[in-house]
Amino acid sequence: MVQANTVIDGALFVETSLFDADSAEVIKSIFPIVVTKSSSQEYGSAVSYAKRYSLTGILNLIVVDEDDDGNNSSQPQKESLSPDKLVAMKKYLEEGKIKEVEAAIRKYDLSPEQSKEVATLINQAKAKAIKSATK
Question: Is the pTM of this model over 0.85?
Answer without folding.
Answer: no
